[in-house]
Amino acid sequence: MTAHPAGMTYADYLQLPTLLSAQQPKSDLHDEMLFIVIHQTKELWLKQMLHEVDLAISLVVSDDFAAAYKALARVSRIQSVMTLSWDVLATMTPVDYSAFRHVLGTSSGFQSAQFRELEFKFGIKDPRFLDYQEGGTEGRARLQAALDAPSLWETADAARIRNGAASWLEVYRDSERWFGLYQLAEKLVDIDDALSGWRHKHLLTVERIIGMKPGTGGSAGASYLASTLQKRAFPELWAIRTQL
């Protein structure tokens, strides 16, 4: 196959007929389309972030820190876009959402296998989330693989040890000597910072639209989201700031 196949169109390359036919509202209410598009877009961005994290892990394993920075910087930029998208969803009023909420049935963003996979790949590994994916499904298999494989944090920490730094505190106290590891750590903090911002905006959006009602699919809704605000993928990198 040539790099530029003759006759290929924009729609062909992007498989637009398939992509644009994937929005199938269950009601005839206007705002359901926005709800679907927002969540499908998030899943596409999650797919890209997983792609970048896999690359970053492989680069860190090879001590190619500079190349890993680019992939990790891209992840944090995507996180910013995802956080901003909550503002678009927030144009939907409580009345708008409640009019079609019943058609969601037991579906819930809580069930997003890709989001849990991303958490696992960062280093937030909670095997209880396997139970939200049916056995034998691709989502559960991917989650199990991510649970079993070294995470981004585990890979970065192994790189620190391999390169001879006694601790991350040492890396920060002598950042010129350990500049590659120091910059890697700061890229990880960028991601954690952005993840916390995403969680906070998610909570505010949910509170704005459904208040403290339970979420669909049996989740606790806003109260559960509030409980996640202190989650950190790289807690050691936050803790050392007090010691510097």
From TrEMBL:
Point out the gene that encodes the protein. kynA
The processes (GO biological process) annotated in the record are: L-tryptophan catabolic process to acetyl-CoA; L-tryptophan catabolic process to kynurenine
User: Which top-rank group of organisms is this from?
Assistant: Bacteria
Complex and partners: Homotetramer.
For this protein, the record's InterPro entries field holds:
Trp/Indoleamine_2_3_dOase-like (IPR037217), Trp_2_3_dOase (IPR004981)
- Pfam families referenced in this protein's UniProt entry, alphabetically: Trp_dioxygenase
Transferase: present as a keyword of the record? no
Organism (species):
Sphingomonas kaistensis
Q: What is this protein called?
A: Tryptophan 2,3-dioxygenase
Q: Which HAMAP family match?
A: T23O
Pathway membership of this protein?
A: Amino-acid degradation; L-tryptophan degradation via kynurenine pathway; L-kynurenine from L-tryptophan: step 1/2
* One GO molecular-function entry: L-tryptophan 2,3-dioxygenase activity
Q: What class of enzyme is it?
A: oxidoreductase
The cofactor remark states: Binds 1 heme group per subunit.
